[in-house]
Write a structure and sequence with these properties.
By secondary structure, the chain is mostly helical. The protein has helices at 7-21, 25-38, 43-55, 59-72, 77-89, 93-106, 111-124, 128-141, 146-158, 162-175, 180-192, 196-209, 214-226, 230-243, 248-261, 267-276, 284-294, 298-311, 316-328, 332-345, 350-361, 366-379, 384-396, 400-420, 425-440, 442-447. The termini are far apart.
Length: 452
């Protein structure tokens, strides 16, 4: 860095740098601003501000600072590296790669970190051979860099070289034991290898270290789902939602990886995703029971609806609420009885028809389920749940073309509702995704229509 001629600027810079080291970023930025009032082109203060903005996830502001610094000093290698990191965070990978190359030419001391960053960029753009070459260069420069071993493991996992990937994660763990992120990545790889019991054990280790790691709960959910521990899987997904209520994108991301691998969708995940699109009748009493259940207290939620029904046995929404809770615990017959009560009081209750159908569907009574979905669709032809489950019935009946047409209709309807803003973004994304999974599932679509 450059030594300022003005001793006042030097003093302010030193104070700002001291605050930065102590992680008092608000105070540091005030000192840097005071430097820039005295000299608007003072490079160290501009870069200091850029680093603080970066740490605060204000990547656009950080990039502005680094670009300004490079206007003043185009050969400043560190700043090219910092600019590359900002661009990576903004998903501007082509520009980031160019900035990395500049940094490598100008600042050999940053080479290991820049090769690591390059590897991440190349992996993110599916240039896996180049990514592997770059991370190997980083490891040649520092074979004890645990972060680079972890990155190499992720790259090899994407290349489906799982055994080699595990060796990298083990190396990272040896160099930096008890790192939750490394354990998570190892668990993901074991999951892809179908070593599900090992994956569950490793993810549990990760969660003991960092119980707030949302994607670890999702991965644990997918592993438990494959082990047919459906109730545990649903609880894991629910835990992730409690930590991050906006986290549906994670489950979509997890499932998108499975499309690449085997194009299947597993019962427990599908059940959970569809169930998360909760019925909403604008009835505060109904919502209260639902919130109790979502907090994991099944018995308390059931007791709540029963008390409400004790006050008024002719309330179809409370009968539906009780049935909905029972359905969530796979008590299909008891749930079906509640939905019948609701429909006896209100024959046009669409959600009750759908969930009565679900009670039959999950009890393997597909013809009865189909009749319920058709009743719902007669009143609401664009109801996404009814369309989706009717398509699933067609699969059970091995009616290939009918299933495909219904999945396509579900997909188109979801898109149309999303563009009109007539349904929640989240529910549309789920139906779009689930329908696409089924349409892309060639093994499934080829198997239906064949005789047993």
């Amino acid at each position: 860095m450059m030594q300022p001629d003005n001793p006042e600027i030097q003093s302010l810079l030193e104070k700002g740098d001291a605050c930065f080291s102590e992680k008092d970023h608000s105070k540091a930025i005030k000192y840097y601003d005071q430097c820039l009032k005295l000299d608007p082109d003072f490079l160290d203060a501009i870069i200091g501000k850029g680093k603080i903005y970066f740490l605060r996830d204000k990547f656009r502001d950080a990039l502005f600072c680094f670009n300004r610094a490079l206007e003043l000093h185009p050969e400043h290698g560190f700043t090219w590296g910092a600019k590359a990191m900002c661009l990576v965070k903004m998903n501007r990978f082509r520009e980031a790669l160019s900035a990395c190359e500049k940094c490598l030419k100008l600042d050999p001391y940053s080479a290991r970190d820049i090769y690591h960053t390059k590897a991440y960029i190349l992996r993110s753009t599916d240039k896996l051979n180049e990514a592997l070459e770059s991370i190997n260069k980083a490891l040649e420069m520092d074979p004890r860099d645990d972060d680079s071993w972890d990155e190499k493991g992720i790259i090899l996992t994407k290349m489906e070289k799982y055994k080699e990937a595990l060796e990298c994660f083990n190396k990272a763990d040896q160099l930096c034991p008890n790192n939750a992120l490394y354990l998570l990545n190892k668990g993901k790889t074991l999951n892809f290898m179908e070593r599900n019991e090992e994956a569950a054990r490793i993810i549990d280790q990760c969660l003991r270290l960092d119980p707030e790691k949302t994607d670890a709960w999702f991965i644990k959910g997918t592993v438990c789902n494959k082990l047919r521990r459906f109730d545990t899987a649903v609880e894991c997904f629910r835990k992730a939602r409690q930590i991050d209520p906006e986290s549906h994108h994670l489950i979509l991301g997890v499932l998108s990886e499975y499309i690449k691998k085997d194009v299947g969708i597993l019962f427990g995940i599908e059940f959970w995703m569809l169930r998360e699109i909760s019925p909403d009748f604008g009835d505060k009493r109904f919502r209260k029971g639902l919130e109790i259940e979502k907090n994991g207290d099944f018995e308390k939620a059931l007791d709540y609806y029963e008390k409400e029904l004790g006050k008024n046995t002719k309330d179809p929404i409370m009968w539906f609420g009780k049935g909905y809770i029972l359905e969530g615990k796979r008590k299909s017959k008891e749930a079906g009885t509640c939905f019948d009560k609701a429909l006896g009081l209100n024959p046009g209750f669409i959600e009750a028809w759908i969930h009565k159908g679900n009670a039959f569907y999950y009890d393997d009574s597909y013809q009865e389920a189909l009749e319920c979905y058709e009743n719902a669709l007669s009143s609401s032809p664009e109801n996404l749940k009814a369309l989706y489950y009717k398509a699933m019935c067609m699969i059970k009946f091995r009616l290939k073309e009918e299933a495909r047409i219904l999945f396509e209709q579900c997909y188109r309807t979801s898109k149309q509702l999303e563009s009109k803003g007539e349904s929640t973004f989240e529910s549309n994304q789920i139906f779009i995704f689930l329908s696409l999974v089924q349409l892309l599932n060639k093994d499934l679509m080829e198997s239906i229509g064949k005789s047993d």
